[in-house]
Amino acid sequence: MMRKSRRLIILGLLVTAVMSAILLGTVSAEEPPTTDAQISRIRTNCSAVKNTLTQLHVNDALLRVNRGQLYESIATKLMSSFNSRVSGNSLDASGLVIITSSYNNTLNTFRTDYQAYEIQLSAALRIDCTKEPVAFYDSVAAARTKRTQVHNDVLALNQSIDDYQGAFTTFATNFTISTGGGSSQ
Amino acid sequence: MNENEESVEQQDIGFWSQHRFLILIGASIVVALILVGISMALYTSSGAAQLDLSRPGYQAVTGQADNTSSDFASYPSSGKLDTTAINDFRTLYSTQANSAKAVDAFGGDPLDPDALGISAP
Hints:
The complex is a heterodimer.
Chain A: H1 2-30, H2 36-44, H3 46-88, H4 94-126, H5 133-179
Helix pairs in contact in A: 3-4, 4-5
Chain B: H1 3-18, H2 20-45, H3 48-51, H4 59-62, H5 83-101, H6 113-116
């Protein structure tokens, strides 16, 4: 019995080691290795890359301001106002309120994620890519991941906007049926 | 109190009264620096810095901040709800929803190493 259990433990450890090696291999395959040739390329293109990143930094800031204002206005001027009006007329706005709440949460996440992305991109821009090409590469890679997250937040906001529109259509249909095209009062 | 103690006290009073204007200026500067430090910390941590297009380096796009897209009339939050009110909301919401979804904000992949020219050759 003891021998059997020892064998099982050894076998388990071997399987774990092999699986870990495979997984680590997969992860390292996703991260491109920073070879000498690549380091040389980063140094050569340093100035051009910095210019591109600076321009992207400025354009993204403008995009954040413009999109942010619009998203904020949709929440405050349309969703919340309509929900209040529906509630004020003693009608059920719970479906609309839930979507509005989800939209506001996503909007907060969007703000936080953009802030993290901007800080990361600023940090990348501060690195001298001729002296620290590897750190620069890693910093840009981190900024890329955070920018993707911001894009995902935008997609989630768009989805919430669509969800609210769907819930509103359902509400409007039910309202028309229940009132016969008249008013609630 | 003997004469020596009186003379030391007079010297102390003399020092503060002689330099009170400089001390006032110094204290004012210290208070101002502390308040500026607190303000800058709040400015950075609150995310306001990211929205401030008047920062150095952003002058080129300062004028491009678009106030018109978000400057639409607010839907009245009170009043009778009838078919007209619902149709008004439908029109207003559809316009803004389409405007929000018209731009694929932060889409694409401009930070792709291949696009930046820093990938492995």
